[in-house]
């Protein structure tokens, strides 16, 4: 369904395993990468290992890195910019790696993201992988949320370049109608996992494992025993089929596009980040606040029309008012210092009328807040 490159499949000497969540997938691949380097350089080098992501990489990456013994000072969260759609810059990555090497550190692992949590930004996989390969680093692609969309041919482009990575994961429990927990992880080199995570006590030895008749998944994960997660995913695939699962993804994206279009028609708002999937990031514009002050621009002591903090507070108030209605639940993020609201479609019962109702509610609450802002703010 995902059209993954053959080296990730068992038929291409790779393989897949279902982990509980993304953190576990990251921990396992970090351990594999760590042990591959330390077997060569010695375990005393662990304090020199450095891992890289962007400031949009999910916080589970930092947790996973700490769990496997990476010095917190050696966890890099490289800055992204709105001008580059909050994707990690290959040039910035290369410069950071070279700076670390110059002071005696060892680049170990890059976590690239397809569909970041805050705004669903997409890192440029191919150029990032090529930079990482120059320094012998392990590259993991985290597509926890957005990976599900890539079962649709029109969204598969977001995985272009994954063929150069070492591992890839996405969470079927996020958008593929599968209940928690179900994180699908593929690796090109299963032996790297097995060498790092294997246990071989006498009481676990058996002919099937030793003759390679089975894949012993205890050596692909943190725990020794495992739940039958494959059954629920298999049932979803059998029950819906590929066409219906694609329709589910496409319908969610279509409804999100509808909301995005409604936001764009109201000049008091902006779509802060171009929609990639089924998440719309939006906010009230500073100009909308200024225009409510009886037609006069509202300026602060520096002559600027409303400070960013003021606009952020107003958008936070809008979110609170929306959720307090009990009719809609939205979330927020702060990216590039800007507070934005996030409207996500993902539930199977959402219809167009719900999206339209949600937008009308946003407008009603915004009208009230902007009226109060205009009446309570002194003219410039």
What's a concise summary of this model?
The chain has 380 residues and is an alpha/beta fold. It has helices spanning 22-41, 60-67, 90-102, 125-134, 172-175, 190-197, 207-210, 229-265, 286-291, 308-324, 352-376; strands at 15-19, 49-54, 75-78, 106-113, 138-142, 167-171, 183-187, 269-273, 279-284, 331-335, 338-344. Helices cover 40% and strands 16% of the residues.
Outline the structure in words.
This protein is an alpha/beta fold and 380 residues long. The protein has 2 domains: 6-227, Type I PLP-dependent aspartate aminotransferase-like (Major domain) (Aspartate Aminotransferase, domain 2, 3-Layer(aba) Sandwich), CATH 3.40.640; 241-295 and 304-372, Aspartate Aminotransferase, domain 1, CATH 3.90.1150.10. It has 11 helices and 11 strands. It has helices spanning 22-41, 60-67, 90-102, 125-134, 172-175, 190-197, 207-210, 229-265, 286-291, 308-324, 352-376, and strands spanning 15-19, 49-54, 75-78, 106-113, 138-142, 167-171, 183-187, 269-273, 279-284, 331-335, 338-344. Strands 1-7-6-5-4-2-3 form a 7-stranded mixed sheet, sandwiched between helices. A 4-stranded antiparallel sheet has the order 8-9-11-10. Helix 1 (22-41) packs across helix 2 (60-67), helix 1 packs across helix 6 and helix 3 packs parallel to helix 4. The longest helix is centred in the middle third of the chain and has 37 residues, at 229-265. Residues 294-305 have low confidence and may be disordered. The chain crosses the membrane at residues 329-350. InterPro entries: Aromatic_deC, PyrdxlP-dep_de-COase, PyrdxlP-dep_Trfase, PyrdxlP-dep_Trfase_major, PyrdxlP-dep_Trfase_small, Pyridoxal-P_BS. Its cofactor is pyridoxal 5'-phosphate.
